[in-house]
Design goal:
This protein is α+β, with helices and mostly antiparallel strands and 131 residues long. The chain contains one helix and four strands; from the N terminus they run H-E-E-E-E. It has one domain (14-127): 2-Layer Sandwich (Pantoate--beta-alanine Ligase, Chain: A,domain 2), CATH 3.30.1300. A four-stranded antiparallel β-sheet has the order 1-2-3-4, covered by helices on one side.
Length: 131
Amino acid sequence: MAPRHTDRANRSGFTLLEVLIALAILAIAFVTLLGWHARNVATIIYDQNLARAVLLARERASLVHFQALQQGIDSVRSEAGPIDGYPGFFYDQEVFPTGLDGMRQVILRVFWDQRNVNACEVTFFVRDAAQ
């Protein structure tokens, strides 16, 4: 009879320890990837809201220019409130004198998060068309 070799080098397959180590490495990799994915989704949502806020600020600035053209520069006043048709979005419009007759400085903020009211801030000047 030939002697049996029971050495580990001749065995095929994996030990329980090797399988557990491989599973631990895979688990760490998946948790890391899921964290990156969640961060990317949050960044995409922020970017979409910021793009929408920029477009709404441009629209609001056009309305202010049109109001000054139609009703005069004195009709442009500081105001704030929600934006119609866009739930969760708000604007804050501040009007300041510039020292020049017939011209006002307007600071317009459009935001969707009360903690970040300076997310989209636009500063522009409006002049009286009659002058």
